[in-house]
């Protein structure tokens, strides 16, 4: 790929990418560092950068270069670059600059309103934000020619090629298997002895252990960090990946698994091809693929017997008093405990997907107009009772628990379960190629798996969408079957 | 100030200001958080933002608005806004965009080259950076019509109204008094018992004490933070002020006084009028005025008996074992110990200004061509021997000690001593208005002084330059006399 036209296109894309990374850093800093009274200024900064990033993404010269390249015979890689650039360019040129600015400013305000509403468990402080975010989402879809298919638009934004109908079908299949299976597992778990009561896990020692784990999994701290925020996340690009987690001294597994989850995202970003940043060859395939990486490392790897065979002695070394009376089997059971919870990020692997089904169904109803924002808390609580068997007594544990909608990120939640499906499919494929994977883990070796993911997934960039990528790597269509098989094997 | 033209100008200035704050955040993050291998990407980000900030500052519409306003009858405030905006606009329009981009990228590279050179005590790794930064400075001066007066340009950038000749005269007067006085004080100090050997001051307890002190001085942590970096600094705007310090468990006073120094800067920024950010009414008068605030809080306040009467018991409470055998008098002497040192930021108040004279004289020679970069270490060491009485055995303690030149910030150093002069003049004026100032401090009350500085200095913004401001507030010309008086009173 050396034509002058293609080179020039790549330079323009790189510029827009660089501004995007600045916006991401502002967002990271907002959640990790921002003083309480500095939110307005941060909103102004975010809006200014979003506007400039938008201007860079819709530079008329990009349109000219694309038109020229679309008339040429291109290699598969070149065609992938052009296809994605066209998608981004069309999206950028169809959104008015005032709209982009308004949305960025609202995203920042929305985050702070959500944080306050959550702290005060007061949905009323958040409702207007949601109304406005839904309105912005509808307007955005309309600008881009998706009027009447607004929720499909929100899904396609995160996962090209997917739709509410396709996800609805996949989730229906999943529900058929999972709802009765989860009931069985939960009932069996209730007959087991009570779980462990953790106490006094010093945050500093947790941080050190977490650093050891994430480094051994392969996260490169020369090109990334981990910090603390209210809601764990991973942002930034492969050259500077910023992950977060949170610590409580009575929930050491929560911070650890959050961190392993974010490490999965971080490894994906660090595995993208640096020279291709800003183009389809150097960006993640989509959010389902992204979540497949985070969930695979968190669950298939992090909750495996092999993983703990290696890390258990190291963990006990750091927390001798706190782990003194705990057998290995009790620890493994605690790590893989199944118990319905109100909070998605605290959920076990089995019931986790029911949280996602809940959010998907609610988002679909918010967009098709059959659910009003004011009725959200009640609808949430009813769905929670039905799917998870628990009813929130406070909106803090219900509709206010997640950050996503605060900046208008609708259509993202399904990616978690799509990612779980894909993770299970990737896992069985990797196992087929290297049956000794868990024996690797037990020796503290994660390099084979990382290398395999680097080749099969990370280095592919966005040459393929989640559906194609799954088919190519595993030889099978994306489906819930591998996930159900995996959950049955581990929890049955 | 309500005319539509003026309002529109203020909006344009606000936009450039907002982008400037983004650049500052990138710079803060670079020194506080950046992973080791992420420097190239940060350089790209800095360059992109600098270019966009530059574009915003030279928007043609600003030129049109200025021309219109320059033809109108303006109030004093309006005239100040227009004068500063014209200065910035002319500077922005005369610098080519490629130059701005090159300088920003070089600034980031230069910082990392300096950090490496300093760590390895290898001036050779830094020389090319300095050559290139000097070349950039000369080119910048030429673009702006200061060819032949390059060093004056660098000074005027930081302190409008000042020049190498004026500073030369002020420094000559200061040297006449200070060099013999410093010799006397140093000789007397040598006859005193050895200073205290500090040990085992836990960083966390230092952080807590430092937080207590800076909060009581008036720093608003709702609109700012303090973090850790290699070289302490203060950046950001009044809505989000980011200070740094550094900690060693055997140098508790170093981190504390660094933090009080940066707090002085931070209080100034937080005292600017928020609604006027981006205009002369909401920006600091210049770097000398800025340093007057940091040095006044660090020295006149932080090293006073009154200050320690209040904070000493609090300090002892946090460090009972470490301070057990130390009398109050010994503590006060340690805080105000005079002993020549190679490192500027470690220097006592008396010899500190000799470090600045050294840098001013070297910068002047670098710019007038009488000193070549390759001869810098030798020239530095010779001047250090002559002025301070000590010769560095490693460039780490000599020419490599300061960050400033790494991003081309020549002409800044004189501001420290100009700030010391101004601080002493402000101090005596405040004392004349409220003789009980130290009694306030002894009760932990710093509000009168802060309020006085808010009114006299902070709220003035850049209505006046350092020379005018000093004259207006103190009724006297800027001069070294008050500084010498103060040093004689405290150390004589």
From TrEMBL, chains A, B:
InterPro entries: Peptidase_M32_Taq. Zn(2+) binds at residues 261, 265, 291. It is an enzyme of class 3 (hydrolase). The active site is at 262 (proton donor/acceptor). It catalyses: Release of a C-terminal amino acid with broad specificity, except for -Pro. One of its GO terms (molecular function) is metal ion binding. PROSITE patterns: PEPTIDASE_M32 (PS52034). Its cofactor is Zn(2+). Its EC number is 3.4.17.19. Keywords: Carboxypeptidase, Hydrolase, Metal-binding, Metalloprotease, Protease, Zinc. The keyword Transcription does not apply. Coiled coil: none annotated. It comes from the Bacteria. Binds 1 zinc ion per subunit. Belongs to the peptidase M32 family. Broad specificity carboxypetidase that releases amino acids sequentially from the C-terminus, including neutral, aromatic, polar and basic residues. This is Metal-dependent carboxypeptidase. It comes from Horticoccus luteus.
